[in-house]
């Protein structure tokens, strides 16, 4: 998915110095951003006070949207470098096309995982024949320096492992939860899981004390860490230092658990690019607007998205919070 902001702010993040070694409870609300023709998203990362959770560097939540008489998601071809994109649906269908020639229809609770590496372009759209509802999340994972020039790739995993117990079903998106491991390729210690809680669930999920975590609300009200109600479209940042995470849902609900080892490297993120220097960002933009680095997405009916102007002042990498 693209960042369609016409005046994107550079996001400067990474490094361990701002990561809390102790558990915290920091409730984040999303910035409302239009996406394509008829979709509005709530942007949770990067946020005013928080830029990353492990290697997770971008989180959009959208829906549930009634698209019965709308085109739904319509994101034209656009480029990426230095990251992975994770497409995750609760309702609806998204058709993925990319410059490698990949064509896949991602369905609810299936993993669409694209590794941009040195450069790729893709489009995402609701099929012409689609259902009434569209609801999901789009997430980016920053690649470490040694892997960010990797060959681009796309994976579609319809069947993902699950860990079940205490009224919680954990479908593992990336990494591992309670012995269940995702087939999705990862480059840093990371975890992502879709947690569905039955009505009355009161559970304790094992987590890694060296990981930092956040919980994104998807459906219903889920009380996290024994104290904080997390509603759909909100995200609770938890810091590090836990060995288990308390979850409770009187009426049932679902959340996404995102976590990972704090990302050591400092990076700069602008528009759809994750890099390390101002020069890399400017070169990527130039290549998208006039070169052949990102290839061509075939089969999408429409023009690619032009890149906005880069800010006149140099982009510098800094820490992970403002």
UniProtKB/TrEMBL annotation:
- The highest taxon in the source lineage is Bacteria
Biased segments, Pro residues type: 305-314
Q: Where is this region: Disordered?
A: 299-322
Q: What residues does the Pirin C-terminal domain cover? A: 193-291
* Residue ranges occupied by any Pirin N-terminal domain in the UniProt entry: 45-141
Family according to the record: Belongs to the pirin family.
Write the protein's name: Pirin family protein
């Amino acid at each position: 998915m693209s960042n369609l902001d016409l005046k994107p702010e550079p996001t400067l993040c990474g490094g361990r110095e701002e990561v809390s070694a102790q558990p915290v409870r920091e409730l984040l609300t999303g910035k409302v951003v239009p996406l394509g023709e008829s979709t509005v998203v709530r942007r949770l990362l990067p946020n005013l006070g928080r830029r990353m959770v492990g290697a997770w560097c971008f989180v959009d939540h959208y829906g549930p949207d009634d698209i019965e008489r709308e085109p739904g998601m319509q994101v034209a071809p656009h480029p990426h470098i230095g990251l992975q994109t994770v497409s995750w649906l609760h309702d609806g269908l998204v058709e993925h096309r990319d410059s490698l020639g990949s064509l896949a229809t991602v369905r609810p609770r299936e993993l669409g995982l694209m590794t941009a590496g040195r450069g790729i372009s893709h489009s995402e759209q609701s099929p012409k024949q689609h259902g009434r509802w569209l609801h999901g999340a789009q997430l980016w994972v920053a690649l470490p320096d040694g892997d960010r020039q990797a060959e681009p790739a796309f994976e579609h995993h319809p069947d993902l492992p699950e860990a079940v117990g205490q009224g919680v079903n954990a479908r593992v998106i990336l990494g591992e939860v309670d012995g269940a491991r995702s087939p999705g390729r990862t480059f840093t210690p990371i975890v992502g899981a879709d947690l569905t809680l039955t009505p009355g669930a009161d559970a304790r999920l094992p987590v890694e004390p060296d990981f930092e975590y956040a919980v994104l609300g998807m459906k219903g009200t889920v009380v996290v860490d024994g104290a904080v109600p997390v509603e759909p479209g909100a995200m609770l940042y938890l810091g590090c230092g836990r060995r288990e995470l308390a979850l409770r849902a009187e009426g049932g609900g679902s959340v996404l658990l995102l976590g990972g080892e704090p990302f050591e490297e400092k990076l700069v993120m602008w528009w759809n690019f994750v890099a390390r220097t101002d020069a890399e960002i400017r070169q990527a933009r130039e290549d998208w607007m006039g070169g052949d680095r990102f290839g061509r997405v075939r089969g999408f009916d429409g023009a690619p998205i032009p890149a906005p102007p880069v800010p006149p002042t140099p982009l510098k990498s800094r820490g992970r919070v403002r």
